[in-house]
Amino acid sequence: xxxxxxxxxTRMKNKINRNTWFATLVFGYLLLVQPTQAAxxxxxxxxxxxxxLICDNPEISKLDEELHxxxxxxxxxxxxxxxxxxxxxQWLKERDRCVDVACVKSAYAKRLSYTSAPPTTSGxxxxxxxxxxxAKGKGYTVCDKVKNxxxxxxxxxxxxxxxxxxxxxxxxxxxxxWEDIDPKxxxxxLYKLFKYRGMTPEDYFAGKSPKNEINPEVRIQEYMREFFGxxxxxxxxxxxxxxxxxxxxxxxxTFVQLAYKRNRAExxxxxxxxxxxxxxxxxxxxxxxxxxxxxxxxxxxxxxxAGDMRLYNGKVYFVDSVMGIxxxxxxxxxxxxxxxxxxxxxxxx
Length: 349
Prior knowledge:
Blueprint: H1 18-33, H2 49-56, H3 58-77, H4 81-95, H5 101-115, E1 123-127, H6 138-151, H7 160-168, E2 173-174, E3 179-181, H8 187-197, H9 201-205, H10 216-229, E4 233-242, E5 250-261, H11 264-271, E6 279-286, H12 299-305, E7 308-312, E8 315-320, E9 325-330, E10 336-346
Antiparallel strand pairs: 1-10, 2-7, 3-4, 4-5, 5-6, 7-8, 8-9, 9-10
Helix pairs in contact: 2-3, 3-4, 3-5, 4-11, 8-10
């Protein structure tokens, strides 16, 4: 924001031409109302909720500028520029899932820690163990299996694009028995899910509009066009899980996955040695009759369910692999909780 203060000597005011004086005020006003601009995009054209959060918050706007500079420097100094661009696109999609300032700040901080780090071609994954004090057992074994699977590969500097491929194809991990449904017959549900995607459950079910978003309809329609334009798949699966509503009582939950076909050529630029996974997408809990998001789900559960869903010995695990590996599952107290965190350490750290 640029602020201008105009000082006029009263002895000179009669010598100032009215038209010149008026034009000067108009010019000053235009500068005063000119929107703040982050380095990577024009705030005057920002439509999404996250972009508005960035533009309205000086601290996040500064982080955006820092990341933009770091990202550009990384592109110039690395041979695998195409791969870095791909992981940046993936990160932007994850960032745009944020619904508040704290989430956006955290996303930028994590991304900056990787783009500003010295180049490296290898490192190791370390199992941090259960983060909630849960008893060790079969779930903990799964975490160690994931860690060992990851350490069987050599990762590029920007490892987040490849880690998911290693985990999704881990022996013992299987996909739920998804059943395809026709997205054309469920366009109303698809529309609601894309609207819900950028909101907290509390705001969505209270009938509120997305916060800090100039025109949410533009975002929703863009998602719709992208989904149908890339022949997206709509898949359904039902299982039983404990939910916060109802005192963590185990209940039947209906999941819908919006799956996209992944671009092999783009991913092979950096993850050539990793098994390719053709389809991936976002998962939502929906009502049994497929009329909209499940109102029983709270904000934490919504974020957990958005992760990749895998089965191991028939038990459901949710894996978030954007900036590290967080595994959430049903623990002994019959609640869904972050069971373990597996972090990547760069060589020499």
